[in-house]
């Protein structure tokens, strides 16, 4: 499917996806059926309206093409008319595996399968459990968002993913940055949306943004450490950088402490 290999993050569709996943997980096959029906109904409406305009219906005049059957005329749909196929993908961002229904028949009162009943199985993208090969089959911002979300809880793997896919993090749209901040619960990422990290194409250089935050974090950590005589400020910065995928070594360098101390903070022993 061509659409699978490339794509950008659209704010309206992303919002719909989040709403559906949060409120309709247990009825998802039915929700997909509704969306598909609305899509096809809109296409049918456009085709019929075009025929009405072409045939002059409703304007006091009528032009019926030669060879048109009564059924085609009454239905405003020719034998040669075609609909564009609709494929609805369900994006699931959760940490836990999807445990909702995946087939329309899962919602029925009985388990009896019949050839006469409508069959529908949702096309589910369980992002946190997608194989690397599947994530890398996307060449737009979807690869950026999918990979970042999958590895958000594995900081070393996230750092490796960013390095290996650097070209996808050097010109990211503001909408995609918002998605990253929302999906990983890291509001610090949203602070990259400044002129200093803007690209000529109007996007955000996330790689430079993270590097800049490391520099700012180091300075702030030292300043707060001297002022308060405590390590609490550096620890907070360390956790913020960790949430953005920084390795223990990079965090230690940015906060001016040893890697062993950073590891101790993350394990909870330093509290």
UniProtKB/TrEMBL annotation:
InterPro entries from the UniProt entry: Transposase_31
Source lineage: Bacteria, Bacillati, Bacillota, Clostridia, Lachnospirales
One Pfam family linked to the record: Transposase_31
Region (Disordered): 1-21
Organism: Candidatus Eisenbergiella merdavium
Residues covered by the Transposase (putative) YhgA-like domain: 80-170
This protein's name: Rpn family recombination-promoting nuclease/putative transposase
Biased composition (Basic and acidic residues): 1-17
């Amino acid at each position: 499917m061509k659409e699978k290999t490339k794509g950008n993050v659209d704010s309206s569709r992303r919002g719909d996806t989040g709403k559906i996943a949060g409120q309709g997980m247990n009825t998802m096959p039915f929700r997909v059926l509704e969306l598909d029906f609305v899509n096809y109904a809109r296409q049918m409406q456009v085709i019929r309206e075009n025929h009405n305009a072409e045939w002059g219906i409703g304007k006091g005049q009528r032009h019926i093409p030669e060879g048109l059957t009564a059924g085609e005329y009454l239905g405003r749909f020719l034998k040669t008319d075609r609909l564009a196929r609709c494929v609805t993908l369900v994006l699931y961002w959760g940490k836990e595996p999807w445990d909702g229904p995946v087939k329309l028949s899962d919602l029925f009162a009985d388990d009896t399968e019949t050839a006469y009943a409508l069959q529908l199985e949702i096309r589910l993208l369980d992002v946190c459990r997608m194989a690397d090969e599947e994530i890398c089959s996307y060449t737009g911002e979807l690869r950026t968002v999918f990979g970042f979300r999958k590895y958000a809880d594995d900081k070393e793997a996230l750092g490796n993913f960013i390095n290996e896919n650097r070209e996808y993090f050097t010109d990211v749209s503001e909408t995609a940055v918002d998605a990253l901040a929302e999906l990983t619960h890291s509001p610090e990422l949203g602070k990259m949306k400044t002129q200093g990290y803007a690209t000529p194409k109007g996007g955000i250089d996330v790689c430079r943004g993270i590097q800049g935050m490391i520099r700012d974090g180091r300075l702030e950590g030292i300043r707060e450490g001297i002022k308060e005589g405590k390590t609490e400020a550096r620890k907070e910065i360390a956790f913020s950088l960790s949430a953005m995928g920084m390795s223990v070594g990079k965090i230690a360098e940015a906060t001016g402490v040893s890697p062993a101390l950073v590891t101790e903070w993350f394990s909870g022993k330093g509290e």
